Description:
Layout lengths: L3 H26 L1 H8 L3 H29 L1 H20 L4 H29 L4 H13 L1 H17 L1 H22 L17 H10 L1 H32 L4 H8 L1 H19 L4 H21 L6 H11 L2 H5 L1 H8 L6 H32 L9 H7 L1 H29 L6 H15 L1
Amino acid sequence: xxxxxxxxxxxxAVLAYLVSVTQRTSFGVxxxxxxxxxxxxxxxxxxxxxxxxxxxxxxQVPVGVLVDRIGSKSLLLLGAALMAGGTLLLAFSTSLGxxxxxxxxxxxxxxxxxxxxxxxxxxxxxxxxxxxLSQWIGTVGQLGQILSALPFALLLREAGWTPAFSVLAGVSxxxxxxxxxxxxxxxxxxxxxxMPTGGMGARLLASLRRPGTQLGFWVHLIGGTPTNVxxxxxxxxxxxxxxxxxxxxxxxxxxxLAVGALIWGPLFGFLIARFPLRRSSLILVVVTGIAVAxxxxxxxxxxxxxxxxxxxxxxxxxxxxxxxxxxxxxxxFNPSHAFGSxxxxxxxxxxxxxxxSMLLVGVTLDSLHGAGVTASxxxxxxxxxxxxxxxxxxxLGIVGLVVARRRTRARMYAESGIExxxxxxxxxxxxxxxxxxx
Length: 438
């Protein structure tokens, strides 16, 4: 545990995750060229991205069950192969149907990657570092957004569609070879809870019924939805076609999603390790900050200035690391044999909110243009209205989080005698204690 070998195994797995994020977000910077290449509408392009994310989300639960049974290495290799094949197919696609199949393969390969990496942690590490590592994995993985926003976008512009996506397919092959050499399953873990009878279905149902798993799902949904909408599909078109930025400046601004994650991730890792009973409060603070920046951008009279756009992307970048808090929550309330299943359930959250939002944003943009409200398909005035959709979905997620948190805290008190007071009550008690001791 926590040895040099542990870090080598984790390094190989994290590289595979970094490449998967690059694959996941690559279509976002290709949204406008894809509209021209396939001669389709914004709704059709959003459908390609949505189908990719639907496949990703739908596979999370079975992947979680599989990784508990067969281990991470096999699934990481499968993921790299699927993404390489899907991206190579996209490179030579000339029809929307072929592009849909290609991104479905990419979504499937992406789906098996992150949960497989997270599942490795308790096999190779122990102690408080586990909570922090889940944040570091997500943070390093988000560098894949920089790879898609800068070098890949440049390659796409200079070399063209087929060469750019062919090179990206080769990167996935290389990642698979690294996994083959470096990743091992690790020592079996001691059971920390009774094993349910009845097979995989019973284990999955038991995990799903735990309030802590449900709380992790809602944490992931409200943190991941805004980030996925902007990173996977609509951020780049909003910058280029909506706000008029050139490809270079737009790519640089998109890279702020990864730069911000590098800042937020370690901070959140420290906070959840230091204050494990306040993790849901932390994500609510994060989402409030995103909501404020989101509202400022959409309500700004005229074209928002560059500082407002930059602050928007830095705020949205906190959603990715914030969503990862959900995995730590689920890990805390599940026995060791169910970590993978619980992680798969949690990972559905942000991507379910994301694909619903992405699809509805595209439909809204088409409707506004068709009704003559906007002069062109990607007018920023259209984005002002369409980007209200993710906010509504996050609001519903906050309701789910509050309900699940209440049930989780009630179960903690019943089983362990741990009472978690509301944050304002805890702060007031600490203030009074400070005044009394002073």
